[in-house]
Amino acid sequence: GRVSHPKVSSIRLNEALQPEVAWESVAPTNYTIETSTDLINWETLIGGLPSHGVTTSYSDLSSLTTQRFYRIQEQVPLRADFENGADGWNTESNGDTHWELGSPEIDSLPSAASGNHAWGTNLDGNFDPGVVATLQSPVIDLSLYQNHVFLWFNYIMDTPEGTAGGQIRILDESGKELYMVPEPITGKTQAWTPYG
After folding, report:
1. Using CA atoms, how far apart are residues 30 and 165, in angstroms rounded to an integer?
2. What letter does residue 21 receive in the DSSP assignment?
3. What does the angle CA 133 – CA 182 – CA 157 come to, to the nearest 5 degrees?
4. C-alpha to C-alpha distance for 132 and 92, rounded to whole angstroms
5. What local confidence, expressed as pLDDT, does residue 73 receive?
6. Nearest by Cα to 46 from 65, 67, 28, 31
7. In whole angstroms, what is the distance from residue 85 CA to residue 69 CA?
8. Cβ atoms of residues 172 and 136 within 8 Å
9. Angle in degrees, CA 101, 87, 2, rounded to 5
10. Per DSSP, what are the bridge partners of residue 195?
11. Is residue 158 within 8 Å of residue 125, measured between CB atoms?
């Protein structure tokens, strides 16, 4: 996933004389806090720390040295724009319509949401009726995340309302379903639409 370093707004000693680092944050985002005594070797203090709004802070309860450095990293467990392929993504279909990765070439899908590539069912034609086609992401390690992880993506759809569409399912690493979003995505969008 992508890693970025937020802007630190303050470093101070809290009431218990423990170092407290505060930074500009964005919800919903998770952060990893790392520490070092030499700026070379870094140790993770906490991973998956959720944002507290526009400012998030963390107090280092383990700080026993007089000099300690901190860095904060924004965590995104999976970010894919598909411009360099789609390693680990899998597709299945029970018919002639399949998920395809490439440059869209039909009127209802004139371009990708960003860049040149997108996943679509028949990038150069219509979806065949009655076909069940699945697109599955690589396994995502969420062990560092203490709280919620959010699913965000862009989609564009042109299906008959209520009779065809998309269904989001969360699977474990063996493929067993953990959760299915109750409401399917169906109908027609006029443009790429954010989900999440």
Report:
1. 31
2. E
3. 45
4. 8
5. 85
6. 31
7. 37
8. no
9. 100
10. 153
11. no
Taking the model in full, what pTM does it have?
A: 0.64
**Structure-block tokens of residue 184:** 């399917």
Distant-in-sequence, close-in-space partners of 67: CB < 8 Å, separation ≥ 6:
37
Q: Tell me the per-residue pLDDT of 60-70, one tens digit each, with 9 for 90 and over.
A: 887 666 688 88
Residue 39 CA, distance from chain mean position: 29
* Residue 1 scores a pLDDT above 60: no
Smallest CA-to-CA distance from 91 within 61, 121, 47, 111 is with 121
| Residue 92 confidence (pLDDT) | 93
Write down the mean pLDDT value for the chain. 84
Q: Which residue has the tokens 């026993």?
A: 64
| Cβ 70 vs Cβ 33: under 8 Å | yes
Query: CA torsion, points 181, 183, 184, 186, in degrees to nearest 10?
Result: -150
- What does the alpha-carbon distance between residue 34 and residue 142 come to, in Å, rounded to a whole number? 18
DSSP 55-120: EEEEE-TT--SS--EEEEEEE-S-----TT--TT-EEEESSS--EEEE---BTTB-S-SSSS-EEE
